[in-house]
Specification:
- Helix 13 crosses helix 14 and helix 13 runs parallel beside helix 17.
- The strands form five sheets. The chain has a six-stranded mixed beta sheet with strand order 7-4-1-12-13-15, sandwiched between helices.
- The termini are far apart.
- The protein is of the alpha/beta class and 499 residues long.
- It has 17 helices and 17 strands.
- The relative contact order is 0.07.
């Protein structure tokens, strides 16, 4: 268990309710330790807390405050000692201390021990110029170090005490290390905080809040937002939406249903894009329900339930953030795909650009090569043909003609180029796209790779022809260049097709 060390001089005993067990202590981590009996305890001590000897002084401060070894705490002539068996257990068990750089202005504590008393004084104001990133790196390093040597670990974080900066940084750093170590909320990763909003009243109990589940939902939701940015439906927060939705009361079910239908559509749209089926994206853009209507209904529900004091309830699920993310990001994606217009050609062109921006270069190449044929067919035959069979006779005829033009095997080369509105560079791009598509589609095992594969010695090794040199894979930068040329070709054909 890890906690933020703070100035405990004025802390008062609190009866903490931890999952039904009540522990009285002035120190929240001591109460948690009494409940869970941790194998390892770690305190993060801000550099701003003491002038020197931070680890020794923090332990001395706890000893004096809790009457450990009959030591007493004196501040400005007042005895602030509070007998605390839970803190005694913490001190007897022992804990590691990590010094953490902390920016800001403070009056660091100065401790003197005399006649069994721990006398506390404050030094003059001192400014610390540490950047927040230094604090974050130090906290993360401490978490990483204290977890070394454990194959399996259950990490508890207490966020009750400490400066607002250190508590915030500890929460952030613990989220990252939980992801890195594969720690799951409610199982191997738990965040605790006790809401003490003023001097505790005798006889009242403060219930510890377990922030773990909410933290896990937020982590999943933040990761889920990448689904829309990276065009990957596998990252969508579908599971969290189902879990949270199953616990909502009837009051929210209508809005939940609207948003769920939008989430299902987003999943289908993102899969269509990621799988390289950009020409079908327009279908989902047309199927999108009235998003403005869903937003208005969500706004009404949020106002009635959360912004109007009379509508508040004591128990709830963190559903509005998930709903808001789904509605806003799906709306944004659909509007972006329709940036050029809502026709299939307009949406496909923008979809290819988005795939390029998201570095799905292989998908761009595979689609653009065939889509160029479609755009040329439309340019040449739209007045006499209403539709054409994909990969049919006419399609294949144009495809073969473009291949011959690229290889300069067409006797009427200049006239043919003029007829389709292309330059020699354009048809060369068309042919290079075909070759790159084949290379990628077959994982490098295609005729275009111009390679040999070993059958006997080191079988499966891919070699340069008649050489012992390894054939190199297709590099990302080369595929990116081809994808960029593909985008320019489609944009050119589309602009001529629409003028």
């Amino acid at each position: 268990m890890v906690w933020c060390a703070g100035d405990v001089t004025n802390y008062q005993p609190v009866s903490y309710d931890i999952e039904g067990s009540v522990v009285k202590s002035f120190l929240a981590p001591a109460a948690l330790n009494k409940r869970f009996n941790y194998d390892k305890l770690v305190a993060l001590i801000p550099l701003t807390l003491f002038l020197e000897d931070h680890s020794e002084n923090y332990k001395l401060l706890l000893k004096g405050k809790s009457l450990y070894d009959n030591k007493r705490l004196e501040v400005d002539g007042r005895d602030l000692t509070v007998y605390d068996p839970a803190v005694h257990e913490l001190l007897a068990k022992g804990f590691e201390c990590y010094l953490v750089p902390h920016g800001g202005i403070s009056h660091p504590l100065v401790l003197k021990e005399r006649d069994g008393k721990i006398v506390v004084n404050r030094s003059s104001a001192k400014k610390f110029n540490y950047d927040l990133n230094v604090t974050f790196n130090s906290v993360y390093a401490a978490l990483r170090e204290c977890m070394k040597g454990y194959d399996e670990v259950e990490l508890h974080i207490d966020l009750t005490h400490g400066s607002n900066v250190l508590v915030t940084v500890l929460m952030l750093a613990s989220q990252v290390i939980a992801e890195a170590r594969g720690l799951e909320a409610d199982a191997s990763f738990r965040l605790w905080c006790a809401p003490i909003l003023g001097p505790p009243e005798p006889g009242l109990t403060v219930k510890f809040l377990d922030v773990s589940r909410l933290s896990n939902i937020v982590r999943g939701l933040v990761a889920g937002t990448c689904a829309w940015r990276r065009l990957d439906e596998r990252l969508l927060p579908i599971n969290w939406y189902k879990i949270v939705g199953s616990r909502l009361g009837p009051k929210f079910k209508e809005v939940y249903g609207f948003v769920k239908s939008l989430l299902n559509l987003a999943e289908d749209l993102l899969w269509t894009l990621r799988s390289g089926q950009a020409p079908f994206a327009y279908l989902f853009c047309r199927q999108v329900p009235n998003i403005n209507g869903i937003k208005e209904r969500l706004d009404e529900m949020i106002y009635e339930s959360y912004l109007r004091v009379g509508g508040l309830q004591e128990d709830d699920e963190p559903w509005i953030s998930i709903a808001d993310v789904i509605v806003e990001l799906t709306d944004k994606l659909v509007k972006d795909l329709k940036a050029f217009g809502d026709s299939p050609i307009d949406v496909t062109t923008r979809a290819l650009q988005r795939l390029y921006e998201t570095q799905y270069y292989d998908k761009v190449i595979a689609v653009a090569r065939e889509y160029a044929v479609l755009l040329i067919l439309r340019r040449l035959y739209c007045k006499e043909r209403e539709r054409v069979e994909i990969a049919g006779d006419l399609w294949s005829k144009v495809d073969e003609e473009l291949k011959l033009l690229a290889q300069k095997k067409d006797p009427a080369h200049p006239q043919a180029l003029s007829a389709v509105g292309l330059t020699e560079d354009d048809v060369k791009t068309f042919e290079s796209l075909r070759q790159m598509r084949n290379k990628l589609m077959h994982g490098g095992l295609s005729k275009e790779m111009n390679a040999e594969v070993s059958l006997r010695i080191d079988p499966g090794r891919i070699l340069e022809p008649e050489s012992e040199k390894d054939k190199k894979p297709i590099w990302k930068k080369d595929v990116e260049k081809e994808a960029e040329k593909a985008i320019k070709l489609i944009e050119k054909l589309r602009s001529r097709e629409t003028t």
